[in-house]
Amino acid sequence: SLIIGNLKHLMLSGITTNSLSGTIPTLIFVLFQMTFACISVAIILGSVVDRMKFSSWIVFSVLWITFVYAPVCNWVWGGGWMHKMGALDFAGGNVVHINAGVSGLVLALILGKRRGYGKDAMIPSSVTFTALGAALLWFGWFGFNAGSELAADGVAASAFMVTNTAAATAGLAWLFVEWKISKKPTLLGLASGVIAGLVGITPAAGFVTLGGAMVIGILAGVIGYFGVAVLKHRLGYDDSLDAFGIHGLCGIWGALATGLFASPAITEGASGLFYGNPGQVWTQFVSIVATMAFSAMATLAVVF
């Protein structure tokens, strides 16, 4: 069970209308967890826009959720080896963003570039819809992060607060870096920065203070910008919606930053480097490397 979990709740076996997870009905928890799986596979889809048959995508999705997502989810949240090791991932830094970001990169590399990539302009068809989508994500992310406490308490309130703070600071950081380098701030850059900040704070949301969240957000905006504007072009891969540049890289930063900024004042027993527990950084590092390696190899296996 430390590696792949078990099937004791297959078809919701053993779960009744009176079952609780935290302070909420387990049936609601099941639906909540399903949304995490849905968004993870949707992130990967963004990497391979215009390059995959729909029928192939359906098969890939079923296999990936079963053999890549579910094991990592069990490692972190199901009492698996990362949980036993003490790795901190409040709402999906490893499980969702690193996992899907790396898998998306692998799939994009295997399928190759879109026709006309590097020659034709491939800008968003509607900046208006992009901004609307970012706004909907920003709002929805409050449920994603604060809801991971499974209770309406102080930790959930703190997660709500730091999620908004990181998103705002990352959006501004991306905007100002873009403005400085390209001499022109853009709404697309602001929206991308907001998502980068939301990704960065996800693993840390229930563990860090407002100050930690601001640092995480600012650096997430900078890291996301260079991942999209510099790294992708230097390496020459075609990641349509920047799943790796934003979700992968900012997820890595957020998971590592959790080991720096986790404060026992927010969640008792969770301490990072700046609160006297340097070992947490190593634990986070091991969890990041393991997730990246498994995601890449398992996704390759699923594809072939």
Features:
two-stranded antiparallel sheet; 67% helix; 304 residues; globular; mainly alpha
What's this entry about, in short?
It contains 10 helices and 2 strands.
Strand tally, please? Answer: 2
Topology as H/E string? Answer: EEHHHHHHHHHH
General form: globular
Q: Approximately how much beta-strand content do the residues carry?
A: under 5%
N- and C-termini, Cα separation: 26 Å
| Unreliable runs | none
Describe the biggest sheet? 2 strands, antiparallel
Structural class: mainly alpha
Trace the largest sheet across and list its strands.
1-2
Average pLDDT number:
95
The amount of helix comes to 55-70%
DSSP helix count?
10
| Rg | 19 Å
Walkthrough of the structure:
The chain is mainly alpha-helical and 304 residues long. Helix content is 67%, strand content 1%. It contains ten helices and two strands. The protein has helices spanning 26-47, 54-77, 81-85, 93-111, 127-146, 154-182, 187-201, 210-235, 243-261, 279-303; strands at 20-21, 24-25. A two-stranded antiparallel sheet has the order 1-2. α2 (54-77) packs antiparallel against α4 (93-111), α8 (210-235) packs antiparallel against α9 (243-261) and α9 (243-261) packs antiparallel against α10. The two termini are 26 Å apart.
